[in-house]
Amino acid sequence: MSHASPTSLPDFSRGDGLLPAIAQDFATGEVLMMAYMNAESYAETLATGRAVYFSRGRQRLWRKGEESGNVQLVRGVYVDCDADTILLKVEQLGGAACHEGYRSCFFREITPDGPRVVGERVFDPAQVYGKK
Amino acid sequence: MSHASPTSLPDFSRGDGLLPAIAQDFATGEVLMMAYMNAESYAETLATGRAVYFSRGRQRLWRKGEESGNVQLVRGVYVDCDADTILLKVEQLGGAACHEGYRSCFFREITPDGPRVVGERVFDPAQVYGKK
Predict the structure, then answer these.
(1) CB contacts, 8 Å: A32 with chain B
(2) CA-based angle B108:B112:B115, to the nearest 5?
(3) CB–CB of B78 and A106 under 8 A?
(4) Which residue in B has a C-alpha nearest to residue A97's C-alpha?
(5) Is the bond preceding residue A20 a cis peptide, omega within 30 degrees?
(6) Where are the beta strands (DSSP E) in chain A?
(7) Helix H or strand E encompassing B54
(8) What confidence tens digit (pLDDT) does each residue in A21-34 have?
(9) What pTM value is reported for the model?
C-alpha cells in the first residue's frame, strides 16, 4: 500500500476536490457537524484559524458563522489514514453548530421507535436567520 | 425549508445512495473513522448491532472487522439535520479502528511544521492482515 507524502495531506485530488470535514467540540468531544472542504477553504481555514467549508448547494466558500455569528475557532486539524477526510477540533462560538439551533447537527437519535430528538436547542433559527 | 419525514431518515436518495458515516468511541468521544453506508449496510447495522459500511473501493458491503476482528458494536445511531450524514457511537473491539493499527484513523495532526503522528499504535498491521 502506498502512503501519501506529507506535502499531499490532505489529498484534494480525491473526491472531485471536495473532502468531508468533521467538526468536533475540542472540549467536550461532541461531534458537531460534517461538511465539505476544497483546497481553497482548507487553506483559508489554516490561515485564519476559523473553519471555512465549501457549500455544495451554493457552490462557494462557506465561512461558518458568516450569517449566524456562530464561528468555529480551530484548535486542531487532523487527517485520516487515507488522507481524504479531515477532522477539526473547534471551539464553537454561540454554543450551536446547527442552523436549526442545536448544539450539534446530530440532534436526532435513531431508536427502534423511530427518530427521537436528543439534542439541546440553543437558539431559535427564526430569530437568528430571520423568518422564512 | 422542508424537513425529511421520520421514515426517510437517513435519506439514501441523497449522495448517489451513499452517505458518510462517522464512527465515534462511545466512551471516550474519540472520532475513530469515517466511511460510507448504503441503505443495505445501514439496515444490516441496525439489525445486527455491528457497524457495516459500503466499501467504495471494493464496491461491496464491508463488515467492519471481518478481516482484523476489530468489530464495532453499535451503542447509538444518530442522523444530522439534513438527514445525509450518520453518526455511530461504537464500542471498538480490539482497541483500534484503523487498518494501520492506530486507535483512530485520524492519527496525524497538521501542524505548522507539517503532519505529526499523534495517535497511539495498538497493533502491527503486518501481523493482523499479513505481510503485503
Answers:
(1) none
(2) 20
(3) yes
(4) B81
(5) no
(6) 19-25, 31-37, 52-55, 60-63, 72-79, 86-92, 108-111, 114-117
(7) strand B52-55
(8) 999 999 999 999 99
(9) 0.92
